[in-house]
Amino acid sequence: MNYEIIALDIDGTLTTTDKEITPRTKKALVEAQKLGKKVVLASGRHNAGMKDIAEELELGKYGGYIMAFNGGKIINAQTGEVITTTYFPHEYIQPVYECLKDSNITVITYEDDMIVMNEKVNDYTLVEANILKMDYKTVDNFTDYVSFDVNKLLLAGEPEEIDKYEKILFEKYQGYFDVFKSCPYFLEVMPFGVNKGASLSKMLPKIGLDSKQLIACGDSYNDMTMIGYAGLGVCMANGEKDVMKIADVVADSNDDDGVAKIVEKYLLGE
What we know:
Blueprint: E1 5-8, H1 10-14, H2 23-34, E2 38-42, H3 51-56, H4 59-62, E3 65-68, E4 73-76, E5 82-85, H5 93-99, E6 106-111, E7 114-117, H6 127-132, E8 136-138, H7 142-145, E9 153-156, H8 159-173, E10 177-183, E11 186-191, H9 196-206, E12 214-218, H10 224-229, E13 232-236, H11 241-246, E14 249-251, H12 258-266
Parallel strand pairs: 1-2, 1-12, 2-3, 7-8, 12-13, 13-14
Antiparallel strand pairs: 3-4, 4-5, 6-7, 6-9, 9-11, 10-11
Helix pairs in contact: 2-12
């Protein structure tokens, strides 16, 4: 198959455990773009937390794409054009917040390039700020403060609590919004039907491509939709077992140039 585009999760996939892109991976992706292949950064991250990676991989030069918020916002890295954006239904922010009142889970969202969170603090509260290298602020009354449009809510907490409230929210609000883990301590609360796979299915026809020409690489639950949608779905060796089960290929780990090896084999023909 002639693959023309690759969608890459960032954390646990494109970047190493130390949050770096290896020289081999960078070289392979730049070489693929020189051949006309397209690169999509597909992450749960805020787009501001993907800017440096997009620049490192020269997406602006070669016309790549930034897919932020698990597909909630897609940006053309060359022009800066927002191709699509979907907001979380504001009427459910208060119910989600109330549902979590007896937990120690931090509720997080984003105001422009600022992270906004409630006052609850746990060991995972500042992980998002450290990953994105964004400033943050805590607010006393989260639901009153968040009067603006947001693409998603992020819940951060102990894995046991995250598992508990994933089930509670899913059972109570199935069909109104979506919840899924991006890692054991993060629960993504998204507009209904917005995920990486669905967003890629809307984007590809606009640029003259289809799913058979797509490679999608990921490691966690929020990558499953795009791995299942792609012509070649790839799970990293460090990925979740459930993700491996639906993948066409299990690549080497993110610390062992797994993405580079996929690009070399399927895009560069090496």
